[in-house]
Amino acid sequence: MSVLVTGANGMLGRAIIARLMNYGRKVRAFDLEPFPDSRVESYVGDVRDPVALSQAAGGVSLIIHAASLIYPGLGKPQHVYDINVGGTRNVIDACLARGVKKLIYTSSMDVVFDGRPIVNGDESLPYARVFLDYYSETKADAERLVLASNTASGLQTCVLRPAAMYGPFDRHHFPVMFTRAKQKKLARMGDGKAQFNHVYVENVVEAHLQAAAALEPRSKVSGQIYFITDEPPRNFFDFLAPFLNAMGLPPLKKQVSYQSAYSAALASETFYKLAPGEKTANPAVTRHAVLSICRDFSFVSTKAARDFGYRPIVGREEAFHRTVAWFRMNWKPSA
Questions:
Q1: I need a surface site. Which of 1, 73, 191, 316 has the fewest CB within 10 A?
Q2: Could you say which of 26, 76, 102, 139 is catalytic?
Q3: What is the domain partition of the chain in residue ranges?
């Protein structure tokens, strides 16, 4: 099977490509910058460019569409829609034009979260009634496109919804937490009881490859959605604390109540003003962040285990050591 991975330079894209290379698979990378490994056939392009995607898709049998723009800010910038929804539409069109047989879309657990608690959520949950950020809304819109493109004997599609991913090459999640902890601007929020799911990137890779192997016409996987997790949920800050300690960062001593945190987020969103040169509004704390951390937000992977045999291949302790080792070598505090 030949595979095209969009978002190839991201945390998940890199890990998928590394595994495929270990298996001796023919793999292509598609991203805004060349892929750093010269052994990989690299296509430089933007998912908003249908011509570039069509060229990259020629001759492949599977596309793993992992490219998206993570946007936790305010408003509904057009470019976020164009990348996350329009880009997905372009990927689907490339599949149809080039005869690609399989498409796996990497989505997010955020598409079902509207602030109400979720405990051991599964795929029966509907999309959020009200989306708390535009990223979640665009990911849900893209999911709908992917699922609608699934056909009985033509293009086979499925959607994976990983929990909050972490691991080597994480550029979004831990770097923010580490920087704020170093600046002593990070505090525990809530009463410490809320449960939250993280998932190690290599286990998400395993889910993608297992789903791809099972994705055949009229199979259980065809046209389906799957949550991907790898260990029981924990409180967000209980999960984070050992990483801060291993990185030599200050422990979390401050505690902010849910109500205070939510009020601060509401004020931050209401009164945020763009700085000179800024095009998007990114306040330091948002209601989405507060609600997802202070209220239960957990899922199970029972359906993935049943339909395509998903099992995590990297345990909690090993995932911790691999992640810390990478950040010790590569992380530098940002402004």
A1: 191
A2: 139
A3: 2-330
pLDDT of residue 86: 98
Place of tokens 């908003």: 48
C-alpha R_g of the chain:
20
The DSSP 8-state label assigned to residue 38 in this structure reads: T
Q: Tokens standing for 296?
A: 């239960």
Residues linked to residue 118 through DSSP beta bridges, in sequence order: 297
For 120-162, the DSSP string reads: EE-TTPPPPSS-SSHHHHHHHHHHHHHHHT--SSS-EEEEEEE
The angle that helices 258-271 and 287-294 make with each other, rounded to 10 degrees, is: 160
Other residues' Cβ atoms within 10 Å of the Cβ of residue 278? 11
Residues 6+ apart with CB under 8 A from 201: 11, 12, 15, 165, 166, 167, 168, 169, 170
Segment 76-129, tens digit of pLDDT: 999 999 999 999 999 999 999 999 999 999 999 999 999 999 999 999 999 999
Q: Which helix (H) or strand (E) holds 308?
A: helix 302-308
What does the pLDDT read at residue 283?
82
Tokens for 332, please give them. Answer: 């530098």
* Contact present, 131 and 114 (Cβ < 8 Å): yes
pTM given for the model: 0.95
> At 276, is the secondary structure helix, strand, or coil?
coil
The question of whether 139 is a catalytic residue gets the answer: yes
Give 80's Cβ-side CA count (13 Å radius). Answer: 20
| Structure tokens belonging to residue 2 | 């030949």
Conformation bin of residue 203: beta by default, left when phi > 0, alpha when psi is -120 to 50: alpha
| 3-class secondary structure, 317 | helix
d(CA 266, CA 264): 5
Shortest CA distance to 220 belongs to which of 307, 116, 136, 141? 307
End-to-end CA, the chain = 43
